[in-house]
Amino acid sequence: MDIPVLFCDIKIISGGSVMAVSIVLGKANSGKTVCCFRAMEEAAAKGKKVLLIVPDQGTYEAERRYAESLQGRGFMGTRISGFSRLARQVTQGGSGDTVVLNDFDKRLVLRRLADAWAPSFTVLQQAMGQPGFAATASAFITECRSFGIDAETLKNAGKALETGVLKQKISDISLLYEKYDEYLQTRFGSTRDLLTALAEDACRDEFLQGAYIWIDGFQWFTPQQMQVIQALARCAEETVITLTMNPDALDGQQRETALHRRAYEAYESLCRLFPAVHVRAVGDSAYSTLRAFRDDFFSTVPKFQDASVEGIRAVQCNTRHEEVRYVAGQICHLLRQGRRLKDITVITRTSDPYNRICKQVFAEYGLPCFTDYRRPMTTHPYVEAVTAVREILFSHLNNDALFRLLKTDLLPFSRREVDDLENYSLAAGIRPLRWLKDEDFTYMPERLRNRCGDLSYINDIRRRIFHIMEPLFPFRGEKKSLYEWAGILWQWTYDTQMQSLLASWQEEAEAEGRQEEAREHEQVSKKVTALLTRMVELCGNDEISGKEFCDLLEEGLAESEFTLIPPTLDRITVTSIDRGYTMRSPIVFVCGVNDGVFPVHYGEDGLLNDKERNFLKNCGLPLGPDSRFKTFQERFFFYLALTRADEYLHITWSLADEGGEALMPSPWVGLLVNRGYVKAESDTGTITVKNRADYLVNARAALHFLPSALRSAKDGKRIDDIWWALYDWALLNGYDDSVHTIGAGLFYNSRAQDLSKGLIESLFLKNKTLRGSVTLLEAYRKCPFAFFAKYGLKLKERQEYDFAAPDLGTLVHAVLRCIGERLLEEGRPWRELKDDEILSLCTVETERAAAEAANNILMSDAYFRQIKNRVVATLVRTVRQLRDFSEGSEFSVRALEQPFGTKGAWKGLSFNLPDGVKVELVGQIDRVDTLELDGRTFILIVDYKSGKKSITLPEVYSGLELQLFLYMAVARRNLGSKAVPAGAVYCRVRNDVQRCSAEPTAAEKERAYIKAGQLSGFYLNDSDVVRALDDCTMEGRTASPYSGLKINNDGTLKKAANVSDEAEWYRLLRLVEAAACRSASELTSGCIDIYPARWGSSNEHKACDYCPYAALCRFDVTAEDGNSWNYLGNLSIDDLFPDTVIVKDGGQDGVD
């Protein structure tokens, strides 16, 4: 059935000009555009000048569809344009006083004006310093121009307001608007923008005189566009305007929530503008189920259906990737049925993230597609290089930015050189300011010598970087004109051959058929050049700092986007509804119909909030729609999306996003299902014999499902021969890497095989002897695999120049050792230290020890110097506490940093394993205190810890905490047969902030710090020895703040203490030696299981906490045949020694 050509043939007199204007109303997909095309063809055949105006983003699609409608005949004398392109064409031959500024130009001018007039602003003064302010202000001024609001009108509206934030805000905006117009008038001699110029110059354009004009694809018009339409109607022979609206229900569109509310507003405005306008309606050319669905579902109250609509499917998928895979599979089936790629369109609400997923999945299925998403240029190496320069120069040569620049491959450095320099910079602590000095580096970390060699190699790279960056150093100096800054940067990119390298990348991409990549290289080069050019043309004489120049350039680049056109006509189109609402296709997939995605949930943005916009509207100053109105308009977008299809419509949604977060279906999905229009299907992505044809659409795509099929075969189940055929095909057609990856994944398990005897001997033994520290055995017990990674493979994290926990431990040990040794040399006990002497000693010894730290890190900058001062404060508090403890103790220091198991040291522990391996334990005891009493030597082992450290009996028995007791065993063996354990404790070297319920006094503060630093460990259950150890335990007192011990009035120790009698101590020492033997035996047997320990009263402690090897072992308790925890239990001391009580204490391991 032919569709009639509808246009107005009634001529009216308005303003002295004869105008023929008609409005064509029709529902979506009723044939309005086809009407336009046929009328245009008839007019062109008669030699008439023909113009079709469509939304700017729809010009390419309109040209393509019009060309197709002519069935290969082509067209001349017919123009298809958007308002912006038409304005440029008209103004090119006009008076020349039109101001043509793109978005960057406007932001640049507004940014400069905001800086210049900053003192005059009030509430917006702080916002003007924010990076996005210029863009927001530009959008608002553009909005004002679109609605016919000039600076004077805005200012007068502000004056009429009562005092308040809105009045000040309008005052600030109107001032900026006014200065913007003044700048345009001064710089260009006019304030006319493109659409204003089009409205004023249209009648002087030769082509528009007597032309036949069709305006199609718009949902509404701004007042400025209305002025353009009026001007075009004056000079045109005929003007036809189409609007998407149900002509039979105009009265119902007046409501704010009406489906066609915006189109109705445009209709009313056109009727007011052209009182004698002729209104015609386009009816559907023929009945179709999709058109009936459109009328029924989008009526004011959706009708109920007895049966699902033919031609519509609604499918739920688990994830967005599976959703797009479903779409790809359906497209492949359609192609087999004879459909063309160009017949298919994929529509989403917004481009992200479906643009990226569609390109990835469609490529896997061999489906060419074009996405009209305008990807930002910020990820291109050239833009990355330019933005990195800003950070380098104005963050004192920030290291991260410098290496981002070097990794763009635009400078003459190999990737190996960049990696080596980055590793060196991190390990040696090269501070940003060092790069600004033409001085060679002098420090080489030991770990980098094998890879980087000597410093000459590193310094050669440094010198090359310095000479490349040196021309940019003026950016850090005084102010210059924008013209000078642009010249310096342009010359630098030329001298470093960035531009020529970018051109060679473009040529290489073109030669290899990567046309999209080649166009990207070309566009980014032109864009940077254009930005610099416009900066010079608009504000070239402005004196600004180098930082301001770089900020302006970076802001321009951040808003730059790639604009690509389809490389071929026969391809799938992927678009968002706000860009592709003019498109029509036989088959449409509407993806992402999830709540919050489609429809979008709007919030307030811009300079004015919704309340302020509505207030101005009531004052006669209408602006763009608020968030409430935009929310109502989401239903209209859904209407457009569901009416783009001529034959088949697929609606899809997912249950989870890429991060695994749950998604809900859109409320419209529920309405479609509940009213009977569709039956919701579920695509699980699981292949069965019945549905495999839906998934196995081609061999390449089927590889995605091969792992799940082969997993069934691995489990002993019979699988269809098609999977083995696919497996063979992949091996023979270049997909062997994929097949091997699939196989490796199927048979992968996160279990480590035992090491052979030969490997054990080569890695850990020497002459059948395992020689190591107690820490080695503790590490093995915590996790055998982590032990293997550290001590066997010797894996280490990348060295960084920092002062971490191990460095702190080393430093405090060194300082405490030096202080103790000095006292021993002088023959003085700790109790004789004075407060001022303690401060002096700690400061001097810390300075000395800090000077020996890596590259003198604690003196490298203010941050590390502050750390050093905190270390001094911590040491002062610790030494004072040790001094105070010593004042009430009869024990004296016997040894400091006492080594054992090495030549000239104490004799170490050794034992033989059943397999013939000898174990020798070596190490160093931080401090040994002794007391001679009744002919016996009582021993106190003290181990300094800079972390939160405690000890419980289950940790000892399980082999996690052997250190204190093995140190005690060593001391007993070296101090004679009369040596008796008195205690083994950890001394915390920390200065944590203490929390109090109220403001404490000085004495309360001191008590809180003493309690926090209390010794933690085990003691001998002997009140005489305990009294000699700590006189604060005397009868009648509270528990000692130093040891936590308390002697009852009857002379016995309080039961709530970690105390054991002498016999129990000896049994405990034997128990610890047995635990050490057990760990050593498992180690030498080759067991390196991924079997991390968990322990504590609630198993709260895990060996995996802070483990650097997690990415290597991939510990997973949920996987099939996966890993498991080594629960070490929570034995009480009653399980081992019934009469002994232990205080259970938790905490985080500190630094040994």
Automatic annotation (TrEMBL):
Pfam families: ADDB_N, PDDEXK_1, UvrD_C
Keywords: ATP-binding, DNA damage, DNA repair, DNA-binding, Exonuclease, Helicase, Hydrolase, Nuclease, Nucleotide-binding
UvrD-like helicase C-terminal domain location: 280-582
Keyword DNA repair among record annotations: yes
Transmembrane segments: none
Coiled-coil residue spans: none
Domain of life: Bacteria
Entry's Gene Ontology molecular function annotations: ATP binding; DNA binding; exonuclease activity; helicase activity
GO BP field: DNA recombination; DNA repair
Family matches, as InterPro entries: ADDB_N, DNA_helicase_UvrD-like_C, P-loop_NTPase, PDDEXK-like_dom_sf, PDDEXK_AddAB-type
PROSITE patterns: UVRD_HELICASE_CTER (PS51217)
SUPFAM superfamilies: P-loop containing nucleoside triphosphate hydrolases
This protein's name: Putative ATP-dependent nuclease subunit B
Organism: Megasphaera micronuciformis F0359
